[in-house]
Write a structure and sequence with these properties.
The complex is a heterotrimer. By secondary structure, chain A is α/β, with parallel strands linked by helices. Chain A has a single domain, classed as 2-Layer Sandwich (Nucleotidyltransferase, domain 5). Chain A is built from three helices and six strands; from the N terminus they run βββαβαβαβ. The radius of gyration of chain A is 12 Å and the shape is globular. Chain B has two domains: 208 residues, Rossmann fold, CATH 3.40.50.300; 58 residues, 2-Layer Sandwich (Alpha-Beta Plaits), CATH 3.30.70. In chain B, 38% of the residues lie in helices and 27% in strands. In chain B, strand 4 and strand 5 form a beta hairpin. Chain C has two domains: 150 residues, P-loop containing nucleotide triphosphate hydrolases (Rossmann fold), CATH 3.40.50; 61 residues, Alpha-Beta Plaits (2-Layer Sandwich), CATH 3.30.70. Chain C is elongated and about 70 Å long. By secondary structure, chain C is of the alpha/beta class. The longest helix of chain C is centred in the last third of the chain and has 17 residues. In chain C, helix 1 crosses helix 10. Chain C has ten helices and eleven strands. Classes of the chains: A alpha/beta, B alpha/beta, C alpha/beta. Chains in contact: A-B, A-C, B-C. The interface between B and C is medium-sized, with 28 and 32 residues.
Chain lengths: 119, 287, 282
């Protein structure tokens, strides 16, 4: 299973970037192999609807779970269609959020928690 | 390094005047204007521009006349009436690329469009990063991202421990871009019906970022009932009101003179502004 | 005659000028139309106690998927520049609120699985009283692309009327849509550096579009000539000055127009109109 965290850097020591659609990178961890790598979020360069482009990117990288701060309605719909589960946190290092996720301390989003454009 | 972003929801609440005061009280900080659609912090801080950069936003269509066969297909299919007589009106073009896809002669290309400029400047109170979006250009959220990224780099270079950003009005995409990753959001509001209306929405937006959120009521004595209403609302939203600035003609006078009100050095707002700044420093220090 | 009213900065008194100008022209031989194109916050109707005679919905086409025809080839996703379509796990998802209705997906779908279907984006309301018509556009909540609704309001323009168009603040796309093709633009500003800063942006926009303009200074104070100096420098006429007076603000806050609360303003607005007519004739 692959877990992605929206981040401002490329390692587990970097901070969570709470904006799903506009974060710089996703740090991805493969639960089975234990491997960690980062992908650039090219979705953030979109003129509009960056959340949808980002969801597509995560789908293409076969991500199963994404940990982020804010999810808008469009991004949520797209992630749902891609069968990617969303967990939300507010701040901390990528490794801390992964730890919280593994311990069951992050809440699973059942709907968008911000409006379009993050409003 | 700490980042403070000043936002307001509604425009015209005195956000920029308060930031101007903070710039002088902080002594030396990195100043950043995230209102790229209608920047106005420069009016108070009088920056001298040191470096200018171009900003390319969305792509727009361009016709290559040497390949165009005048078939008229693009003109017929363009929903925005942006193509007339083989010419593209870049103001009307929304960059949908339908023309690019349907052109049988491959005579249309999509080209990044120069949508604005951004600058690194010097002011008396520290370096400033600001921008100007071109006329009728979209994509201001992306430009705000660019400006803030540069602000962090410049602050690092100059060994500055604080970035103070002026956020755009509203609650749309550019506001979100100016809040992401900030340590503290200071919401400047006023005791009017629309001020009250916007407060709840903007506080909700800010609290989604896990930053410290606090409220300052500007011109609080214009309507004491509304002021109390705002204080109650803030309590309900669990955000502290850390400053109440009285209506002060000196604020308007300072704007007319193009200087921060603290430099003018008179009026009823001086002391409350100083106290507000102490509160901000205290909250930022505790983080 | 089509006159647009704009201001770089919000809250400068655009609607105050538009409503009083319209009321002052009621005795003119030509009919008067006031178009409220501030579709996100239409408020001109507050000042005219008129019953709405009719309302029309505004629709824009968005794609609809015929899942029997769809081959999930991804062409539409590739074509759409606005991320309004996503292909996930063999489902095609459409996002109506980011769609620009460009038609790319349905023109280019190889199996004709996408067809345009109308989506309501707003409404246009019309009220009439004698030879005066008020046309108001309202953007549907949850929609944020206002130019199509503005265009629908402007489609009601009558070439034989004096048309006054009140729009949103700023100098961005919606404002360009309201000033486009008008004979003259009245810019409403206030005498502060912030007002001037935004006035300059609005004037730059009008120059690009080649539209003649003049300035109304609202909340004018005699000791301040910041706007005067700019206008003199640019050769822009100052059409009217409305002084900074609490009576004006108070009456206006109650929903009473300037010419109604103080009838001596009526000849001044009439003069403003005649000045605009002369400027356009030049």
């Amino acid at each position: 299973m692959r877990v992605a965290v929206s981040a401002s850097g490329q390692t587990q020591l970097d901070e969570l970037n709470p904006r799903l659609g506009r974060c710089e990178y996703f740090v991805i961890v493969d639960d089975v192999s234990g491997e960690t790598w980062a992908i650039e979020n090219t979705g953030r360069l979109s003129t509009g609807a960056a959340g949808i482009a980002t969801a597509t990117l995560l789908h293409n990288h076969q991500v199963d779970v994404v940990i982020t701060g804010n999810v808008g309605p469009n991004a949520f719909t797209a992630l749902e269609a891609a069968e990617i589960k969303v967990y939300t946190g507010t701040k901390g290092k990528v490794q801390d959020l992964l730890e919280q996720y593994r311990n069951g301390n992050l809440s699973k989003a059942s709907g968008p928690n911000v409006g379009p454009h993050g409003s | 390094m700490k980042e403070l972003t000043i936002i307001s929801g509604k425009g015209g609440t005195g956000k920029t005047s308060i930031l101007g005061a903070f710039a002088t009280l902080a002594g030396s900080s990195l100043l950043c204007d995230c209102d790229v659609d209608a920047a106005n912090l420069h009016i108070l801080l009088n920056p001298s521009i040191k470096e200018t950069y171009e900003f390319y936003g969305e792509k727009k269509a361009e016709i290559l006349p040497e390949l165009c066969t005048d078939c008229g297909k693009c003109e017929e299919l363009c929903q925005f009436k942006a193509i007339q007589k083989g010419q593209i009106n870049s103001y009307a073009c929304e960059g949908c690329a339908v023309c690019y896809h349907v052109c049988p002669a491959e005579a249309i290309k999509m080209k990044p469009h120069l949508s604005g400029h951004w600058y690194i400047s010097d002011t008396k109170w520290g370096p400033m990063v600001h921008a100007k979006l071109g006329i009728a250009q979209g994509n201001s959220g992306l430009l705000v991202n660019r400006v803030r990224k540069k602000a962090r780099e410049v602050a690092k270079e100059h060994n500055l421990s604080l970035i103070i950003s002026d956020g755009p009005p509203g609650i749309g995409c550019p506001v979100i871009s100016s809040l992401a990753g900030t340590d503290m959001a200071l919401v400047v509001t006023e005791p009017t019906a629309s001020g009250i209306h916007d407060l709840e929405r903007i506080v909700k937006v800010a609290s989604g970022f896990g930053c410290i959120t606090a409220v300052c009521i500007n011109k609080y004595n214009l309507d004491e009932d509304n002021c109390r209403f705002i204080e109650d609302l803030a309590e309900k939203l669990e955000v502290p009101v850390i400053g109440k600035i009285p209506y002060d003609a000196a604020m308007a006078e300072a704007v007319l003179k193009g200087i921060p009100v603290t430099i003018l050095g008179q009026g009823a707002a001086q002391e409350p502004l100083g106290e507000l700044w102490q509160q901000v420093k205290h909250l930022l220090g505790a983080r | 005659m089509r006159i647009s009213i704009a201001s770089g900065k919000g809250g400068t008194g655009k609607t105050l000028v538009a409503t009083s100008l319209a009321l002052s022209l009621m005795d003119q031989p030509r009919p008067v139309q006031l178009l409220d194109c501030d579709v996100e916050e239409p408020n001109a109707h507050i000042f005219f106690k008129m019953k709405q005679a009719g309302s029309q919905k505004v629709f824009l086409p968005i794609p609809k998927v015929d899942y029997d025809q769809c081959q999930y080839c991804g062409k539409c996703v590739e074509v759409c520049q606005f991320n309004a379509i996503a292909l996930m796990k063999r489902t095609l998802v459409i996002f109506p609120d980011v769609c620009h209705s460009c038609g790319g997906c349905w023109y280019l779908c190889p199996t004709e699985a996408l067809q345009p279907t109308p989506r309501e984006v707003g409404a246009v309301g019309i009220s009439q009283s004698g030879s005066f018509t008020l046309v108001s556009g309202t953007l549907k909540l949850g929609t944020h692309i206002s130019p199509p609704v503005i265009k629908a309001v402007r489609a009601k323009e009558d070439p034989d009327s004096i048309v006054i168009i009140d729009g949103p603040p700023g100098s961005s796309c919606p404002v360009m849509t309201i000033v486009d093709g008008t004979d003259y633009c009245i810019l409403v500003t206030e005498p502060t550096p912030f007002g001037l800063n935004d006035l300059v942006l609005a004037v730059e926009m009008l120059q690009v579009l080649g539209i003649a303009c003049g300035v109304v200074i609202n909340r004018d104070v005699p000791e301040n000539d910041i706007i005067d100096r700019y206008c003199e420098d640019k050769g822009l006429p100052i059409l009217l000055r409305i002084p900074l007076k609490t009576e004006i603000a108070r009456a206006y806050a109650k929903g009473i127009t300037l010419v109604e609360s103080d009838p001596h303003w009526k000849p001044k607005f009439l003069e403003l109109y005649q000045r605009v007519v002369r400027e356009v004739a030049q």
